[in-house]
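Q: Convert this sequence to structure tokens.
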Amino acid sequence: MLLLYQILYNIFMIEQNSIENLKNRLDIVEVIGSYIELKKSGANFKAKCPFHSEDTPSFVVSPSKQIYHCFGCGAGGDAISFVMNYDKLNYPEAIEKLASDFNIPLSYTKGSFEKKDDRRVLEQINQFYKRNLLANKKAQEYIQNRGIYASSVEKFELGYASSSFDTIKFLKDNFLSVDDAVKTGVLGKDERGKVYARLSERITFPIYASNGKIVGFGGRTISNHPAKYINSPQTYLFNKSKLLYGYNLAREAVMKKERIIITEGYLDVIMLHQAGFNECVATLGTALTSEHLPLLRRGEPKVILSYDGDKAGIEAAFKAGKMLASSSIDGGVVIFDEGKDPADMVKEGDIGTLKALFNEPKSFAHFVIEHIASKYNLHNPLEKEKALNEGVDFLKMLSPVLQESYKNYLSTVLNVDKRIIRLQNRKKQPHHTNYQKEDLAELSIIKTLLLKPEFFNTVLDNIGEEVFRTHKDLFVKLVGGDNKNGFEGLLVRDDINELNEEELKQQLRLLLLGFYKIKLDNVKSLNLPFEKKSFFIRKIQDKIYRLKRGEIVEYEQI
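A:
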């Protein structure tokens, strides 16, 4: 199916040299690293597989081969196939997305209908919202009452979505595709198939990806709608679990100050930037997740969680703190008194307090341990034991060094003897592969043929498929011309060597030697006439003798 997509798309849309240029310029580590957190492991990178649930990382990315493979579920391929599988896109959509995300131009075949950039709808509707804000008194009053300066309105491109009718009329009057508007989340469809604008009577906040391209919108009601804030729906461009509002504007400050402040809302970001905290961003109405880690690790900044003091804010800080601590990320938590948030403090001019809070956050581990203790009645021995067990479970998520560092703090907070806090480092699970039984010599030959097809004649002139006792099916598949699918796991493994010509001949000799030794035992056990059996035995023994002397003997089926 992938091959069919490639052929059709190349014929009717994108020029082949343009696709090849895209492939040559993509770095698979950069592509996959923008989706999931990768950690260096020898010459490769490893991660927990995004395509199945696992505790021990078995997902390997090879920068030298530009492929990935999961030894747990068997998923594998190149950067394009990863985006197809992760974002649930077909081949043409994945090509377009990668080209757009990494600013790589595509050229199209003459006479074809050049694909329009879906972002054009987002860009045009953003301009429409911005003009609406200038024309709507109620929306302007809301902005002014929140203390937002005109300079911040311009910087964050705030706008106003009026009625659904107005938005749809604008799209049609400007010959913008309704289908593209639905595809990018500007419009929705009801159960009858009728389109409607997702944002209406709301202040709009355009949301940009880290590459500076618009991907969606947030909206804040000014008409007392029960849903105070809403975001664009999930689209192939918009994944709120990977995005941070304001990161495109904060990126330079984050790198310079080596700090990133994460808040809960758009207005917090805008007001904090207004007060000089231009390293501030916000999650998009969702908790901080492991999908945010690749973005947070850029530049290795100190991460400050800045959350409200209500129950929801504290619980969100607790979950995020656990994740960040277990990922060995430096930083801490700032909790604001209930009923107050950073935007309010900026409006009131309390900048000094904000500065002090951000400069002295409570470390993630300290915050998590204290929150665990707060959930239990520590005067009750049984409750204290539960708190201890939960605290120990948390410490086990940390590296051995951090475990020891925070062991004393847990004992102090719970008022227990630290000697009863027994920690055990996380055990590494045995590396799982799809091969239950392996022959590294056979696999090294197959890997060499994948990488050096010029050696095919050398191999096929000397051996047949029967010589491969363990990986015969894999060899037959390769010889049959299918060298694209199912070989990624082999290519990314560092324990299987790529052979030069002399090493290849040596492995072929050893493979034949083992084959004929087994063949000799089989012939001896056969019920054959004496002369015939003697003939076969002498023939095989001669081959074994020559192989032991270092010769490569021609394979012969006996």
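The two ends are 41 Å apart (CA to CA).
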